[in-house]
Amino acid sequence: MVHRLREVLLLFSFLAILPKATGVEAYSRGGVIQESAAYCLSWRLAVEANNVRAWRTVPSQCLRYVETYMLGGQYDRDLDLIVDQILSYVNEIVPSSDGMDAWILDVDDTCISNVFYYRGKRYGCDPYDPAGFRAWALKGGCPAIPAVLGLFDYLVQSGFKVFLVTGRDKEALGQVTIDNLHIQGFIGYERIILRTAEFIGQSAVAYKSEIRRQLEKEGYRIWGNVGDQWSDLQGECLGNRTFKLPNPMYFVP
Amino acid sequence: MVHRLREVLLLFSFLAILPKATGVEAYSRGGVIQESAAYCLSWRLAVEANNVRAWRTVPSQCLRYVETYMLGGQYDRDLDLIVDQILSYVNEIVPSSDGMDAWILDVDDTCISNVFYYRGKRYGCDPYDPAGFRAWALKGGCPAIPAVLGLFDYLVQSGFKVFLVTGRDKEALGQVTIDNLHIQGFIGYERIILRTAEFIGQSAVAYKSEIRRQLEKEGYRIWGNVGDQWSDLQGECLGNRTFKLPNPMYFVP
Question: Are both B167 and B44 inside the same structural domain?
Answer without folding.
Answer: no
